[in-house]
């Protein structure tokens, strides 16, 4: 007796409600391994079928069909790891095929997910970093760099930030630039020949999480923010004006952001995505880049807050996971006798 499927789900854009004429077809499944593989401890965690050979970077065609199936024990580990695919499968409303084992898994979804499950928002963060989103930090860094460069040319490299402090509030017109107070530790040589540390209050100019003390030179400030600005790279700068953007990837970033926020606040994910129309518009490049960037930025901040307030458990019910696997795999072995 070979592998037995316990669920098969039409996945991807067809599950999210964002399918277009160019969408391919993906299936995700969970299966029980054969008794032989279970007893000999050679169960493959994932089995892939279908699909065609593609060169690097080539995307699927509308006619392509991919099918990926997870062994039950491996699948149950994935929601706790924050794997998007597993979470979307867990909350899929209408599988093409289901079973009592899968129905039990879905009925206990709240015990199989945890606060860590929302870690799949890492994809959202990755796309934000890739395109210099997160508050349009790229323009903020550029403004700081250009300001300190101009002041260095005008006043000379040795002028201190404190000497132009009165002009700094004009730069603080975005959430990534501000004036802050803090405490720094200074090392002092004491009479005994040892060293002593004392706290000293200090004012800072901060942009994109990089602080410059008022006692630093404006040249050093310019050099710091130039490094920040350069760090975003050509692709982030192109994204600011809408060039070279992977709109499909950004639509996925928005989607996983929505899903993470809903999961943290309600303990579930609604599928198809309620506002799938907006995702399709992002996916097809119909939404201005600035609008998408603002949406992703909002989601990242909202998710951070929701994670602190979430009533989800810190860890999934590991005993339940083991019991489900033990019962299912034992049945497979018993049936093979």
Question: Can you give a write-up of this model?
Answer:
The structure is a single chain. The chain is α+β, with helices and mostly antiparallel strands and 337 residues long. The chain folds into three domains: 4-114 and 313-336, Beta Polymerase, domain 2 (2-Layer Sandwich); 126-132 and 241-309, no CATH class; 137-231, no CATH class. It is built from 14 helices and seven strands. The strands form two sheets. Strands 1-2-4-3 form a four-stranded mixed beta sheet. Strands 5-6-7 form a three-stranded antiparallel beta sheet. Helix 8 (137-155) packs antiparallel against helix 9 and helix 11 (247-266) runs antiparallel to helix 12.
Q: What is the total number of structural domains?
A: 3
* CATH class type of the largest domain: Alpha Beta
What does the overall shape look like? elongated
What is Rg? 26 Å
Mean pLDDT over the full residue set = 86
Structural class: alpha+beta
Q: Which H/E pattern describes the elements?
A: EHEHEEHHHHHHEEEHHHHHH
Low-confidence stretches: none
Offer a few descriptive terms:
337 residues; alpha+beta; 3 domains; 7 strands; elongated
């Amino acid at each position: 007796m070979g592998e037995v499927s316990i669920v098969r789900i039409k996945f991807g854009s067809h599950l999210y409600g964002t399918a277009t004429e160019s969408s391919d077809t993906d299936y995700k499944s969970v299966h029980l391994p054969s008794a032989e593989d279970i007893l000999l401890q050679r169960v493959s965690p994932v089995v892939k079928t279908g699909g065609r050979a593609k060169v690097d970077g080539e995307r699927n065609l509308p006619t392509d069909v991919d099918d990926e199936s997870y062994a039950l024990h491996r699948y149950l580990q994935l929601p706790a790891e924050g794997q998007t695919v597993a979470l979307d499968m867990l909350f899929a409303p209408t599988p093409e095929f289901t079973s009592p084992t899968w129905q039990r898994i879905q009925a206990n979804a709240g015990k199989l997910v945890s606060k860590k499950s929302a870690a799949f928002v890492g994809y959202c963060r990755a796309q934000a970093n890739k395109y210099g989103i997160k508050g349009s930090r790229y323009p903020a860094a550029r403004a700081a760099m250009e300001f300190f460069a101009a002041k260095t040319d005008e006043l000379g490299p040795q002028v201190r930030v404190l000497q132009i402090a009165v002009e700094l509030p004009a730069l603080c017109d975005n959430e990534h630039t501000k004036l802050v107070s803090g405490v720094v530790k200074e090392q002092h040589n004491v009479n005994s020949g040892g060293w002593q540390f004392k706290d000293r209050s200090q004012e800072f100019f901060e942009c994109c999480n990089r602080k410059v003390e008022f006692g630093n030179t404006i040249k050093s400030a310019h050099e710091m923010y130039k490094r920040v600005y350069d760090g975003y790279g050509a692709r982030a700068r192109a994204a600011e004006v809408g060039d070279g953007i992977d709109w499909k990837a950004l639509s996925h970033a928005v989607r996983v952001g929505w899903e993470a926020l809903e999961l943290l606040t309600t303990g579930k994910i609604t599928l198809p995505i309620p506002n799938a129309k907006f995702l399709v518009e992002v996916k097809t490049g119909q939404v201005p880049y600035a609008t998408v960037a603002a949406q992703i930025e909002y989601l990242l901040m909202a998710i951070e807050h929701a994670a602190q307030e979430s009533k989800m458990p810190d860890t999934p019910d590991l005993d339940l996971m083991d019991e489900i696997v033990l019962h299912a795999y034992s049945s497979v072995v018993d049936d093979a006798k």
